[in-house]
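RECORD TYPE: inverse folding
INPUT: structure tokens
STRUCTURE:
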């Protein structure tokens, strides 16, 4: 992507931030700060991450997924039937991190995630939510295990974020089954929003810093200098993220 196109896209994300704020203020009312502020914080964090990545790493593909997640998040304020649409691009983001491409098990999971996100009642059902979360967590672990080297370390980070978000979804669904009057809805929603903000920040930081692209060669050399020869294979396997490594 050329710099002019990147600037145009960043301007589009900025416009989406303003539109999201307007939608939430209209939906919650300006006086309901506890209602609209956390909602805006989630959408704005994803959109701000997209803008930052476009400025620092103009050609990176994850900016689009961050921005799309932020936009679809605000759709829930327009229509309750669109509340779960953001989980399609969110799953895409987690399985595309860090290189922006989806491979392996993700090629089946991501399209299915978009379909489930727009199906009426799929994520709205407590038993279905628990089942979907368990399936996604298993897929995230398989996705991580299929990688090697720096990519494996990056996917490990994505798997941890996925696990936290999915566990919150399971806890929320379980709480709704136990507290049928909705007494726990406020707490679980805040926990989910906090997890989403953390996920957006982690993805943005990982892309901008690009630490996954750099192998820790210097640290490895220093470590091996103090290791006995029998530990060389273990140290290399640990740094390369390949437990099956043979030396």
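DESIGNED SEQUENCE:
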């Amino acid at each position: 992507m050329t710099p002019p196109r990147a600037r145009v896209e960043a301007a589009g994300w900025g416009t989406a931030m303003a539109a999201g704020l307007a939608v939430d203020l209209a939906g919650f009312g300006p006086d309901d700060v506890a209602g609209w502020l956390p909602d805006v914080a989630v959408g704005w964090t994803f959109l701000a991450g997209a803008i930052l990545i476009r400025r620092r790493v103009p050609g990176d593909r994850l900016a689009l997924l961050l921005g799309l997640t932020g936009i679809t998040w605000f759709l829930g304020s327009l229509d309750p039937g669109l509340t779960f649409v953001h989980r399609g691009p969110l799953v895409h983001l987690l399985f595309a991190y860090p290189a922006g491409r989806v491979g392996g098990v993700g090629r089946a999971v991501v399209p299915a995630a978009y379909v489930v996100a727009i199906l009426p009642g799929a994520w709205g059902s407590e038993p279905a939510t628990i089942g979907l979360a368990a399936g996604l967590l298993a897929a995230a672990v398989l996705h991580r295990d299929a990688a090697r080297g720096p990519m494996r370390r990056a996917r490990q980070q994505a798997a941890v974020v996925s696990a936290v978000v999915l566990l919150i979804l399971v806890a929320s669904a379980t709480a709704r089954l136990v507290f049928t009057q909705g007494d726990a809805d406020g707490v679980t929603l805040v926990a989910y929003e906090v997890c989403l903000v953390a996920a957006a920040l982690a993805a943005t930081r990982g892309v901008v810093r690009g630490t996954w692209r750099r192998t820790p060669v210097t640290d490895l050399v220093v470590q091996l200098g103090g290791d006995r020869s029998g530990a060389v294979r273990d140290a290399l396997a640990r740094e390369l993220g390949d437990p099956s490594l043979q030396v």
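NOTES: The chain has a mean pLDDT of 86.
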